[in-house]
Amino acid sequence: MDRLYLMSTFVAVVDCGGFAGAARKLNLSPPAVTRAVAQLEERLGVPLLTRTTRVVRVTEAGAVYAEDCRRILAEVDEADAAASGAHADARGHLTVTAPVLFGRMRVAPIVTAYLRTYPDVTATCWFIDRVVNVVDEGVDVAVRIGELPDSSLHAYPVGQLHQVVCASPQYLAAHGPIEQPGDLSRHTVISASAVTPGTQWKFTERGRPISVPVNPRVTTSTNDSAIAMAVEGFGVTRLMSYQAAPHVADGTLQVVLEPYGLPPTPVHLLYRGGRRASRKVRAFLELAAAMLAERPLP
Predict the structure, then answer these.
(1) pLDDT tens digits for 85-95?
(2) Could you say which of 1.10.150.20, 3.40.190.10, 3.40.30.10, 2.60.120.620 is the CATH number of the domain covering 92-160+265-294?
(3) CATH placement of domain 3-84
(4) Does the predicted TM-score (pTM) go above 0.70?
(5) d(Cα 111, Cα 269) in Å, to the nearest integer?
(6) What are the φ and ψ backbone dihedral angles of 189, each rounded to 5 degrees?
(7) Which of 234, 123, 119, 121 shows the shortest CA–CA distance to 187?
(8) ∠ Cα 180 186 190 (to 5°)
(9) HEC per residue, 63-93
């Protein structure tokens, strides 16, 4: 049998959790699906699935192989699309992911402009504060804030951000100034765990990294709730610069400890395919770069 057929059948079994579901998805008979997986296992010389009367489970080797199969099949689809001219115009469905606030503040306007420019594209936006697996979860473009691990994905740099410590003017007036990192020990700390997990806040002093222990009065998993508490005058929090920027601009938050700031944090757009990326992805990257250049990250 054709190797790509065997691979796609195996991936369908893994994704559907069994042979019957894969057969329905592929419009094949269950015996045909079973034969395809058996032939693949024979070719490879390793078991990819463990079977009982009630359940089918993926072996450790099968899980690794399934991930490789997904990548290979996606590359084949992209090659077919390129050869057939499907990349000539932006069309199809685009899935974009970004952290919640960055997505709402900076990515959503880009998506809106993109959809207005390319009427043959539809889009899904996943604005969530977790790292989405681009390959496994079928994402086209992902915003990553922070240093990037080694990856087969391609990265397009779009700017840098800083972490800032801030509090409301009312809080600072009531509790005194914060002029050096050690002053945090006598202040109420609001910890946004997505930005500053743990009980050590890092700073730089005379070019050297330092860590300052903090004892958060409250720890929250969402950045917008930390912002709301700080704006209400409850305490001091640490945010990414783009999160604090609107509130600093309208005077509801004030940045402190600027001389002790960390080095900037890079922001990239991750995508698959490199130079062979689909037209819909390349068009989005181009528009995102242009719009972010017009309004640089704070």
Answers:
(1) 554 578 889 99
(2) 3.40.190.10
(3) 1.10.10.10
(4) no
(5) 14
(6) -105, 130
(7) 234
(8) 90
(9) HHHHHHHHHHHHHHHHHHHHHHCCCCCCCEE
